[in-house]
């Protein structure tokens, strides 16, 4: 099958990816796995560097860089006016060349809009993965939501233009049906984990004898580090390491890093909270292995990638019970779930788990088994392959 994967931003192919897996990491793995299954895959992304090659082959699939919009790395909002032009470029490419996709899969809302624009005069079906939803972010983040004003209405319009939406959690299914999609037009295909990289055996970042809690994510109110810092008063003499944000050398001048440091000092835990900044993604397994527990307390989590990576490394997870975290972490099996915003419950749960060596050992083993059985990239690609075949059969005219 010929598959076109459409993104709106340039990918980090050939560069270090930092801390948590990105949308492009997801697309790259899907493309590689589908290629391994025998499909002909092309990934379309915006050409941000004029010196970059227009086309390049990676892991057997082809990346085509679309010359639309500014020739520089650009935030999402300024790219919205270029979506129609992006769609026209794709349409001309597919109609005037020797390669036309049998199915197109849009990623993130801008990629989906470009894909839907490109195929609207054809019989080519469109599958869409949003990765996050503006309406859901707005509900959870309130005043801290900083998405473009056009995002929510355009995502709503996009749900009416696609053949099938791919959700990454059951919470996202509920959100998409609230937006008007029929339940039969939404399917759950969670992200996978690279279990050749994320596994329990291997090096760990050096640490002292003090128990360690690890939190992974960018620096900002949406990532929930505030709650963890407040909960530390109830946990005892342990270390909280926060990985994410700008590089370590820039933390001193980063407003949010300074605010979190001041919050820790105000709550009497300043000596026990350490920010390490951005970590290359390939180094994250060693950080996970160095932790006794990984805490996941964001105010918004669509996919639950961090708990999956931690679980693949054999580390139990304590997280807020919503979004992708609820799907991935089995309460009292691979970790513990706490009601969102319950700082006291979070602190007590972390303290009890850190004092329970046997419990952490059992949770860690169950976590590895769960990831290897249900969350590998080959399973993700296999589910997408079956979905593509079903959607194409439904769109394809009946043969005489």
Automatic annotation (TrEMBL):
EC number: 2.4.-.-
Keywords: Glycosyltransferase, Transferase
Pfam families: Glyco_transf_4, Glycos_transf_1
Gene3D superfamilies: Glycogen Phosphorylase B
Domain of life: Bacteria
Enzyme class: transferase
Sequence ranges assigned to domain Glycosyl transferase family in this UniProt record: 207-358
A GO MF label: glycosyltransferase activity
Cross-referenced InterPro entries: Glyco_trans_1 (IPR001296), Glyco_trans_4-like_N (IPR028098), Glycosyltransferase_grp1 (IPR050194)
Domain called Glycosyltransferase subfamily 4-like N-terminal: residue spans: 26-197
Keyword Transferase appears in the UniProt entry: yes
Protein name: Glycosyltransferase
